[in-house]
Design goal:
The strands form three sheets. This protein has a five-stranded parallel sheet with strand order 2-1-6-5-7, sandwiched between helices. It is elongated and about 70 Å long. By secondary structure, the protein is an alpha/beta fold. Strand 8 and strand 9 form a beta hairpin. The protein folds into two domains: 157 residues, Alpha/beta knot; 67 residues, Trp Operon Repressor, Chain A (Orthogonal Bundle), CATH 1.10.1270. The protein is built from ten helices and nine strands. Helices cover 36% and strands 16% of the residues.
Length: 254
């Protein structure tokens, strides 16, 4: 897979490319990452890539010409162009999985007060990483790239991504390390039982519990399997969890 990032500040990616999983994925040729400086494509006599907004207003706006020429020079036959923008749908794990299956994506990072509106026709889709303001799209492009790369074959072990938070709209179950007792907090005994079936059942129940308690938005859109419904019927959670599910009008998978 190839990821090309178009930016005004390529130096921001130095640390991102030389550490941890990303560094190993590049070394193993699991992914190719190309950082492109939009400034290299300006035709402005003073090499500017921005100007004041027409009609007045605060700040500076990134100009059309450098961006469009940069896209044209780096776009391949199978490239999909994604612009980091608050107008885009919020990036999530499902989108990361979708993008990880593509061969060639280009991420366009905005900066300053925005990008000339006419650039929109040259991109395939806009993506947001959340409803808050950043100084530019560089950090967002790193978030998206990281989420994609770790899903690629060979980037990390398959076991590490088999059960993770947000799979099927559920948070991951609790994890523990030694020692067994730390300042009075003990590891649940079931995890020492050696009974893998019982451990798996406990972990699923904990996943459901944590999602309900901490991310009710995810819990409310989850489609329960028959096994999950049975787990919800067990223990102290039965009445409150069933009532909450019914009140939200949930659809159960049978």
């Amino acid at each position: 897979m190839r990821i090309t990032i178009l930016t005004l500040f390529p130096e921001m990616f130095d640390g991102f490319l030389t550490n941890s999983i990303i560094k190993r994925a590049l070394a193993k040729k699991v992914v190719e990452i190309k950082i492109v400086n939009i400034r290299d494509y300006t035709q402005d006599r003073y090499h500017r890539v921005d100007s004041a907004p027409i009609g007045g207003g605060a700040g500076l706006i990134m100009k059309c010409q450098p961006i469009v020429d940069c896209i044209s020079a780096n776009r391949g036959d199978s490239s999909k162009i994604y612009m980091l923008s608050p107008r885009g749908k919020t990036f999530n794990q499902a989108k990361a999985i979708e993008l990880s299956k593509q061969e060639d994506i280009i991420l366009l990072c905005g900066h300053y007060e925005g990008i000339d509106e006419r650039v929109n026709k040259y991109v395939d889709e806009q993506i947001s990483i959340g409803d808050y303001i950043l100084t530019g799209g560089e950090l967002g492009s790193m978030v998206i790239s990281d989420a994609i790369i770790r899903l690629l074959d060979g980037a990390i072990t398959k076991e590490s991504i088999d059960e993770e938070s947000f799979d099927n709209d559920l948070l991951e179950y609790p994890q523990y390390t030694e020692p067994y007792d730390y300042n009075g907090d003990k590891v649940p005994d079931i995890l020492y039982s050696g009974n893998h079936q019982a451990i798996a059942k406990w972990r699923k129940k904990q996943s459901l519990r944590l999602t309900k308690e901490l991310r009710e938005d995810l819990f409310n859109k989850h489609h329960f399997t028959k096994q999950e419904l049975k787990l919800l019927e067990e223990g102290e959670e039965k009445a409150s969890w069933e009532l909450a599910a019914i009140e939200k009008g949930k659809k159960f998978i049978k």
